[in-house]
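Margin note from the TA: students keep mixing up input and output lines. Inputs are the sequences; the output is the structure of the whole complex. Example:
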Amino acid sequence: MIGRCLILLLISYESLAQTYVGPNYQAMGFTGTALQGIYSLTANPAGLVGVERLTASVSYQHHFFTADITTQAALLAIPTRLGAFGLAANRYGLKEAYDATKVSFSFAKQFGTQFSIGLSTNYHQLFIPNYLSTFSLSVDVGGQYHCGQGTIIGLHFSNPNNARYGQDVYGTIPAFIRLGASHPLAGVLVSVDAVYPLEGTLGGSFGVEYHIGDIVCLRGGLSTNPLQQHAGFGVDWQQFTLDAAATFHPRLGTSPQIGLSYVF
Amino acid sequence: MCFSRYILFVFALLAARGLNAQSGTDLLIERLTELIAEELAEDFDFSELAERLEFYERHPIDLNHTDGRELRELQFVPQLFIDNVLEHRERSGKFIATLELQAIEGLDIDVLRMLLPYVTVDVSRSLSGVNARRLLNEGTHDLMVRYGRTVQQRQGYRITDTTRSRYLGSPNQLFARYRYHFGPDLQLALNMKKDAGEGFFSGAQRYGFDFYSGSIYVRNQGRLKDAVIGDYALQFGQGLAMWNGLGFGKGAMVQGMIKQATGLRPYTSSNEVLFLRGGAATVAFGRLLITPFFSQRSLDGSRTYTADGEPAVSAIGQTGLHRTPTEVANRGAVSQRVYGMNMQYEYRRFRLGAMAYRTHVDKPIQPQDVLRNQYAFRGRSLSNTSVYYNYSWRGVYLFGEAAHSLGSGFAFVNGLIASLHPHLSLALHYRNYQRDYHSFFNQGVAEGSSATNEQGFYSGLVYHPSRAVEWVLYADFFRFPWLRYRVDAPSQGVDVLSQLTYTWYKKANIAVRYRYRQRAENASLELPHNAIVDVLRQQVRIGGQYKLNDSWTTRARVELAHYAKEGEASELGWMVYHDLIFKPMSGRLSGNARIALFGTPGYNSRIYAFENDVLYAYSFPLYHNNGLRTYVNLRYRFGRKTDVWLRYATFIYRGIEEIGSGLDLIEGNQRSDVRIQVRWQF
């Protein structure tokens, strides 16, 4: 148990590690700022406008294979004439030892043909049995711009008010700015992000998605701070989409994730 | 189809003049070798490749007859493209013009332009019916002699006390090389070399030169695909079990990760270690190629004794230098015998090979008894086996090898290169070399010095949004499961490179590169316990060249190298150079010159830069300390048969009174080298 807590502390120290990212973006090196779809609920909320029908998704992530540190997430995206609404909940933690929950409500709207804006309000709860239970609120804002030929530029500011759990609590709500770009080639999608955490050093990430036929796609990526490799695949079957991803940390090992989404 | 061929043909006639103008041999060698150069000795011999390229420039590869082997030998043509060429020929019939290659997928226009001087269509070839008189009259002879010397005297030549270590010979370097070619299929090669400090017709070198190497090579005679008597090199699979001669690794060309095995070749390099001596042949039985080989030669080794007092060697020498009494005593300390066989099956785009061989040394190998050597090879004989494959399908090229040293470990490589999109290619390469995997001839792609005790995953991308722009990105993550030299714990590391190149067609190019490397090393601080710490190296390079006119080209580079190790002061080194290249389309004189300024606070932030040299000689010297480097190379042609090269190169350092250390020490702040080379072709 001590060892597990130690790993947990080690991970939480890198505040970004607590940010949950959906499996397809995880496989592309955590680049999601300039991408669209249901998993934009875990990245730039402005990407939610890419959801055309009611979509629900559940996913499960294991951190560093051997440890019992997991994330569970459930997402729901509801496109309406007014704009796209989203509901997301995820829980990150170690069974009966540490529990960080985040519930967000998002709204994204398209302005004209090229521009979209998204907003999320988030409720964060941190619970450590026999020690602490606290909560906080934060917001995310994001925008995406279509430059033509399918290229998208995205900007995402997470937690601009720098909300915290409290002075005496060792637990952070990450605050960062991400700037990303994505560009489609026939069958290939390339995506790049630069991230500036308000407390920390500048990082970057890079991802590629490659479609083999209509059903299967392969993904790969690279992210810095710490330098990690990512890989994954997606399978479309009727209304279901299965995404699998893994992040390879050079010292701590592999973090796999699977997600299943359904389009109504 | 016929019509489009006709258009191509006309286009070829029109374009051939412009495209054939200049060979990119120097450029190619620089691109292929630059990243490995840092791991090799300063004067490592890259001539084998240069010679091969020059040979194919004079005897271009016939696209209508090649089975792909010759194209593979060029080392820069991806196997995927070679397979496409062969398939194209099978499907559409013989090539009419080399520019038809443009219609075949799998090669960037830049690389295609480099390839064109080395290929042709339709030349007849066969040695049958050739008699001795024709061999003498129609063959070409090529004799080249090179002399070089460091102008300043090194410490090792000054010592007269015979009880101390010193250089026994003169500081002159001498190299002689003879080639006889009859068409592209018969070659006789002879190399003779004396390094600086070695004797010449004296001491241990009483038969003249210190190193002699020769071979007779015949190929493409019916079933006999290749045959060599004398010195030869074998390259199979991905180099885990058997790879002699020069190999390449990671580089700014992503396909460098794939080892392009050339099978059996005569050995013509002046490197004194990486070859086999004896006989070998490749015989074809339908789709099956069988290569039996035998080699018997002596190698240098550091002499020691086993616990029973029997003579043994602790390590096999890699330098080929025999200058001091110790080096002379270690000369030929071990006799090595190698025999085995390789079988390769080829069917269209699929190749499968298997190999088994045995290496026997007359004295046991007994490495130093330290923990990092716990899994190193010990003993007199070793048997190796290997299975390898490669296959190309649409835009994907798959390759791999599994090798095993009997009684100890395994080594695996698997990878692919895929063109995801006409503008985007991807390379993936996974390696896993067990710590107890042994081979005397192992040159697999590795971060360490040999393919053992390492796991790694490499991923690279090449993006060509247009003809003018190329962006290369690779990341290599690796792990050493056991201790290494100067790393007293299992360790891991990263190597990331990104390079953007912009080319103005036929006029200029500019490249910007960033490279980040992290590895572990023993802490240099005195700590209560032994620990390893991270060493970070970063490199930024901006370089470009500009063609002023048909005769003059200028080239410039700025480079920064940053080194940081925990517990030590970090270092930032810099280097700037400017080159001037004079190469007129006609005229007897050509040459090039460089002036470079550099400043590095220490050896750790040293910078390597490719230097032009006399023909077949290339160097990647390291620039460190503060100072100035300059060199001039000149070439003059006397008629069609004789060429003379001259080189003068010097380092002038600031603020130091002696250069180098030990026997190599030079008093003063200047080190200059001269070289003169003459070649007769008749």
